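User: Predict the structure for this protein chain, please.
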Amino acid sequence: MNPMNMLKDLALKTDSKIVFLVIDGVGGIRSANRQRTELELAITPHLDDLARSSICGRIMPVWYGITPGSGPGHLSLFGYDPLEPKHDIGRGVLEALGIDFDLQKTDMAARGNFTKVDKKGIIMNRRAGRLPTEKCIALCEKLQAKITNIDGVEIIIRPVRDYRFVVVFRGENLSSSITDTDPQKVGLAPRHPEATEDTPSARFTQQVVAKFVKQCFAILKHEKDANAMLLRGFSKDPCLPKLPELYKLTPAAIANYPLYRGVAKLVGMDVLKVEGEIEAEFDLVEKVWPKYDFFFLHIKKTDSYGEDGNVEGKIIVIEQVDALLPRLMALDPDVVVVTGDHSTPTQIQGHSWHPVPFMLYSKVCDADEIGEYSERACDQGSLGVFPATAIMSLALANAGKLKKFGA
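Assistant: Here is the predicted structure, written as structure tokens:
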């Protein structure tokens, strides 16, 4: 039996409350020039105290040695196996949903990066120096004013945040079987979009995308900081089963960044508007606590600082979360999960395949009495290294939300 179907059969509606505190990219690694990770360097008395009352381990978001994107990393936390083809969600859909775009079933979406290339067309900075959102909005408006339709396909361009935007191709018989133009490395040229299947719809869509890319490059070529663009994650809405029907939950998402809001919307959460950063997210949890029984609380900056190689920045965010944790625990949640969607070691300056430190608190979890929340400590936990798709089952069980299996 598919574990998700089994949980659907066993799930109970109760008043108990579950919190997933997802510290994006929290995992790190030790290396020759630094023997402690950011978690191990951070001063985290409250996370450490919670670890002593939790079961601990490390999660594998996708599979051994596989580096997850943010989409599959988060979907696995909520019980969706990222290796199942129907759960392979492209970044375009997530970005579109994350900005509350009204995505139609026939739409095909792609996530865009404004980027900078040199005179030879080689990528110098994939994120255009982390372009400010105001400039992103202006560039999107510039592109949209000049590109509205290609070969009968409507082109919709919307800013997301910072250097990110989304483009939606609206028309009949469009295919998402298109390769990324983003090589995801500096020092390389943007790739030409190609069809990955030999069908009329894929060939037609490839021609439309190629024309769109060419027109964008022509419009942007004289821009100082963002003279090119990259596309990835061509996708359509997969219409996934939702958390309320799967697990009988009333779930809320408290997340600032559009991608994570998109994931939450895709799986059926109420996506709440947050005015501000980390502390504002904790404020909102307190405000809406009576209304929901599942809370996805997302912290982004640990991942951003990891990608920038900023050790001190990542440590500071971890310590900020730690300082706010008592406010969350004062609400008396029945289950608290603390983990990340993937590791983002500052030494690598990107997502990595390393398992992510994990802990789950409940009053009946049979605690490991581990002394701290860190990679080294979680290695000693009773859960060992286990698939992230098992988290939801553990959380529901510890919250008393699952019936007995079998006679």
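The CA atoms of residues 83 and 123 lie 31 Å apart.
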